[in-house]
Structure formats: structure tokens, C-alpha cells
């Protein structure tokens, strides 16, 4: 386990001098967005090579949003331009090639975006006019443009809808329109599109619900959303209880997360989900194989929201996962979670095999440990 006691420099830890604004998590990675638009990343998203402690990325670009996929990162500059960097085997950087880059590269098209989301191997962004463009892998219809043709440059989704937010997952995508209506498209083997079927959809398709949503989040094979009345709904693959319904079994339509909590935001990963209440309390549910629920004891999965074992009050939260078959002889998937407190301190918990908790000490943690900037 990791030690909660960490030393600091004489001038204090950097997150006290320049507190984080928000945090993102992806495949064995975490990134924090600082108030001046700088980005610090750790784990597999660290600059140049994996790192256990945060390193500055982004160069001169100043960001307003950052999102992590599988070993790549995308973000929006303060002017709304999209940039991506990292692995590019499916064109997920949107730069017209499949060449990897360690420095932020401008996504082609010159558009201004208001929201961006990096999935496993595709990314999507919402323009100022409400259009969704996607790039990267489209083999299962993740673009929503009526085809399964992949692209290294942004491609417009079909339907003429006006979106405010998008969430790219493993092999599907969801978004919320300006009227609060959720739409999903792509693979649907586990009901992750929420339309009551397991039929894949190549264009945006409305889930079977009358709920209006403020936001959605896409996991590996499931999705969740926060309604305008702050209730949480999930649908799709219910691995280890990740849907929070309290009972086993997949859900092919949006299903209420039990517990009666009022959520401000949700974050879905591979097999665990976390959320922040309106008061900033952190709750997680699903798999806890590496302590990613933050509630202890290790390995006890939860099918209902369970409070993270901390008195910290958070303003941002993100959930990530890690396919670790390449690094150890035991193949599988782990998880980790990170959050930024209202004072700007960043904490992470769960697996730390390759530094995804942002601390120098190796080993998993079942409770939040503080990320200290170098």
C-alpha cells in the first residue's frame, strides 16, 4: 500500500502554489489541467516516456480542456482549437497520418470546438455550432456518420442534431443535445446504446428513456448519464456491478442508479464508475480489484454507490483503466480513479503499476493519495 504521508519542498507542494482546475484519467494515465492552461501528466501519458510523477506536456499551447484515451491525449486550447498527441495507430490524433507524436499536434480542419472526448481508439469533438466530428477508428460505427470507414481526419456525424457534449468510449459514442436528449451510436453488443436492443447503430440513436440529461460518460461497454434533475442512469454491460443498479445483469435501456444520491458528474471506465454529488462527495461502484473504488477493503466489488474513504471535497473526478498484459505475465484489466479537491489538490487511488497514481512509490492504494508536482 502507499503511504499517505508525503514530504514537500520548503515552498510547499506545487499544487498549493498553482492548484489544479480539473483532472482526466485514461489508460494507465492521469493528467491535470492547471489554471494557467498548462497540463501535467503521469503514467503512460507522461511526456516522452512513462513516468510515476507528473511532467509538463503541451509546450506553449494553453488548454481549457484535456481528455485521455488509450495511450493518447487530446485537448482544446483556450481558443477552442483541438490538439492531440501520443499513439496514433488508428488515426486517433486526427492529424491526417498514423504517425505517433509526443507533442501536441493540431487536429486538421481548423474548427473551433467547445467539447472533446478521447475514447479507446477514436476521438470526437463538438463544434461551437453543435456539430459532432469524430476521427480514428470507425470499424464499428463510432463516428455516427452512417459508415464503418475509419478516418485520420475529422468526419461529421449524421442527423443534423445540435450537441453540447460528447463522450467517446471503447467502440461506441454518446452525446447530449442542447435540449438534453441523449443519443448513442456504434457497437451495441451489451446494450450500451440504451435503445432496448443489441443492434449496432451507424447513426445517432436515442436511448429508450424520457429522461433529459445534463451530461453523459462512456465506459468500455457501457454508458452513464446525469439527468437535469441530478439522478444517475446507466446502461450496457454490468460487469462487476459497474451500472450501480444493485443487481446483476446487463441493462439495454437507461436504468436508475440506486441510492437516491444527487450527482453533479459521473466518470465511467472499464469496469468501475465514480461520481461526485452536488456537495462534492465522491462515490464509486463496480470492480475494486485494485482498490479503484477507494473504499476498502481491497477486492470487494460494489453494485451500489459506495463512499470513497475520505473527507475530501472534490470539484473534478475521472476514472481510468489499464490493460496490463504487455507488462506482466498475468493479463487483465485494472482501474484507477483521480479527483481534484475544491482547494486544487489532486488525489488518486487504485492501481499504480506504471505510475497512474502520480506518486513515486509503487503499489496500489485503496485510499486517496496525493499527487505532488515535482
Tell me the name of the CATH homologous superfamily: Regulator of chromosome condensation 1/beta-lactamase-inhibitor protein II
CATH class: Mainly Beta
Q: What is the radius of gyration? A: 19 Å
**N/C terminus separation:** 22 Å
Strand content: 35-45%
Number of helices: 1
Number of E-state strands: 28
What does it look like?
This protein is mainly β and 374 residues long. The protein has one domain: Methylamine Dehydrogenase, Chain H, CATH 2.130.10. It has 1 helix and 28 strands. It has a 4-stranded antiparallel beta sheet, with no helix packed on it. It has a 4-stranded antiparallel beta sheet with strand order 5-6-7-8, with no helix packed on it. Strands 9-10-11-12 form a 4-stranded antiparallel beta sheet, with no helix packed on it. It starts with 13 loop residues before the first helix and ends with a strand.
Put the structure in a nutshell:
With 374 residues, this protein is an all-beta fold.
Describe the SSE topology.
Elements: H1 14-17, E1 22-26, E2 29-33, E3 39-43, E4 51-57, E5 63-68, E6 72-77, E7 82-86, E8 101-106, E9 113-118, E10 122-127, E11 132-136, E12 151-156, E13 163-168, E14 172-177, E15 182-186, E16 201-205, E17 213-218, E18 222-227, E19 232-236, E20 251-256, E21 263-268, E22 272-277, E23 282-286, E24 302-307, E25 314-323, E26 333-341, E27 346-350, E28 365-371
Antiparallel strand pairs: 1-2, 2-3, 3-4, 5-6, 6-7, 7-8, 9-10, 10-11, 11-12, 13-14, 14-15, 15-16, 17-18, 18-19, 19-20, 21-22, 22-23, 23-24, 25-26, 26-27, 27-28
